């Protein structure tokens, strides 16, 4: 094998590896972009984590308003038989309208998650106040 064919084969191999890495990066970015949005909400930082759910700060893409989203994991909810309790909590939140109570704005679902969109209140947890 001569030097020219080694260089050519090596160059082609390097070029293919670079293209493959670039495509993986683009695909990863596309997947991340999809995960960064739920409905009309752009996901922001995680502001709380519990046993069955995660709270994240989100931005309403229509209004620009910041709200919170509670992301419940259906598998965990079903495993611990909490589906009825979650449904009751959502029904109660829909009924309560008071300036001192965080307001429910929207409920959405996917195959594996329940998304509860809530008014965002700054200041941390009430227990720490």
UniProtKB/TrEMBL annotation:
Keywords: ATP-binding, Kinase, Manganese, Nucleotide-binding, Serine/threonine-protein kinase, Transferase. It is an enzyme of class 2 (transferase). It catalyses: L-threonyl-[protein] + ATP = O-phospho-L-threonyl-[protein] + ADP + H(+); L-seryl-[protein] + ATP = O-phospho-L-seryl-[protein] + ADP + H(+). InterPro entries: Kinase-like_dom_sf (IPR011009), Prot_kinase_dom (IPR000719). Its EC number is 2.7.11.1. Residues 41-129 form the Protein kinase domain. PROSITE patterns: PROTEIN_KINASE_DOM (PS50011). One of its GO terms (molecular function) is ATP binding. GO terms for biological process: signal transduction. It comes from the Eukaryota. Gene3D superfamilies: Phosphorylase Kinase, domain 1. Belongs to the protein kinase superfamily. CAMK Ser/Thr protein kinase family. SNF1 subfamily. This is non-specific serine/threonine protein kinase. It comes from Dendrobium chrysotoxum. The lineage of its organism: Eukaryota, Viridiplantae, Streptophyta, Embryophyta, Tracheophyta.
């Amino acid at each position: 094998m001569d030097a020219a064919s080694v260089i050519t084969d090596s160059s082609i191999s390097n070029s293919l590896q670079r293209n493959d890495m670039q495509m993986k990066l683009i695909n990863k970015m596309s997947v991340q972009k999809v995960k960064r949005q739920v409905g009309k909400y752009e996901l922001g930082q995680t502001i709380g984590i519990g046993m069955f759910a995660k709270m994240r700060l989100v931005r309403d893409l229509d209004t620009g308003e910041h709200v919170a989203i509670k992301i419940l994991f259906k598998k965990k909810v079903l495993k611990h038989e909490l589906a009825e309790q979650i449904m009751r909590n959502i029904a109660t939140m829909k009924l309560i309208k008071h300036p001192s109570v965080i307001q429910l704005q929207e409920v959405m679902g996917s195959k594996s998650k329940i998304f509860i969109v809530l008014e965002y209140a700054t200041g941390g947890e009430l227990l720490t106040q």
